[in-house]
Design a protein that fits this description.
single chain, about 300 residues, alpha+beta, 14 strands
């Protein structure tokens, strides 16, 4: 990351600039101080006590080293659709059928494996830091932080609900006219004794508040297509909420039933909006609907 110091920052200690203006944590500063090229001004290594001058060129080396890499994450040559990449973030369009992280029974076929392979081929150290996670059979956009600072800023935006995520879902059944749009609010908890399945619930110590805004885009006698915006980020939130309404997502075998129309839940994370974790610019990314959902939607027109 390269930054040109302005007159407004002249006279500041580098430590104060990094903490107050850039939002770096103490742990991040410690990491930078330990790297040979962690903090450079005009090509010269400096300490955090350096006094900034207008037009200084500050270079911050945030790239991971080999010692930081995920232990046990095997790079695997898998299809990877990159929507955007810079020094802070990588935005990809994950296909259905690919888990985001390695889990039991899925150690070599995940998005993490694919991204690790990409950076191994570029001879760059890599740590997998997904800012959002999609279920294995949900397709769409995943944002990956390329360093700790980006990860922290994205996590903060997520926790403060400043990230907008829009999904397209095909529901079983025709939504009534009075339910074509709305806000679903309740609590979600783990279904006993399952470690996977979630259920709609009342407020309680084991439950988490969940909210989803949705609107119907089109419908026929058998299906309804909705745009859904999860306002919270609970596990399986959209799947649980629509199933609880009585209109499960088509093909969702966990919360609905299998469908001959599509071989997975018809759910796609198509749009995401957030502030760039370094420069603060508003970003929006879109991922086209995959062919299986397009084919399902043709039956609704």
């Amino acid at each position: 990351m390269e930054i040109e110091i302005t007159e407004n920052e002249q006279g500041m200690l580098l430590r104060d600039f990094l903490r107050r203006e850039m939002g770096f944590s103490r742990a991040a500063l410690t990491m930078l101080k330990q790297k040979e090229t962690g903090l450079m001004i005009n090509g010269t290594r400096v300490t955090v006590r350096a006094v900034l001058q207008a037009k200084d060129r500050l270079c911050i080396d945030l790239e991971d080293t080999k010692s930081h890499e995920n232990e046990g994450l095997v790079p695997v040559d898998l299809p990877l659709s990159v929507l955007y990449e810079d020094s802070a973030i990588l935005v990809v369009n994950k296909p259905a059928g690919m888990p985001t992280h390695p889990t039991h029974g899925h150690y070599m076929d995940t998005l993490a494996n694919a991204v690790a392979y990409k950076y191994q081929a570029e001879n760059r150290p890599f740590v997998f830091r997904a800012a959002n996670r999609l279920d294995r059979d949900t397709s769409g956009i995943v944002v990956i932080a390329r360093h700790k600072i980006a990860a922290a800023h994205l996590a903060k935006q997520m926790s403060e609900r400043r990230v907008t995520k829009l999904y397209t879902a095909v529901l079983e059944g025709r939504l009534p006219d009075d339910k074509e749009q709305g806000l679903i609010q309740n609590y979600i908890r783990r279904a006993d004794p399952s470690i996977i399945t979630r259920v709609n619930a009342s407020e309680g110590t084991a439950s988490e508040y969940a909210a989803t805004r949705y609107r119907c885009l089109q419908k026929n006698a058998r299906f309804s297509v909705v745009e859904a915006q999860p306002l919270t980020g609970r596990t399986h939130q959209l799947r649980v909420h629509f199933s609880g309404m009585g209109y499960p997502i088509c093909g969702d075998t966990l919360y609905g039933h299998a469908s001959g129309q599509i071989g997975r839940q018809a759910l796609h994370a198509g749009v995401i909006r957030f502030l760039h974790p370094v420069n603060g610019q508003m970003l929006e990314f879109c991922a086209e609907l995959p062919d299986d959902i397009k084919q399902l939607m043709r039956q609704i027109k």
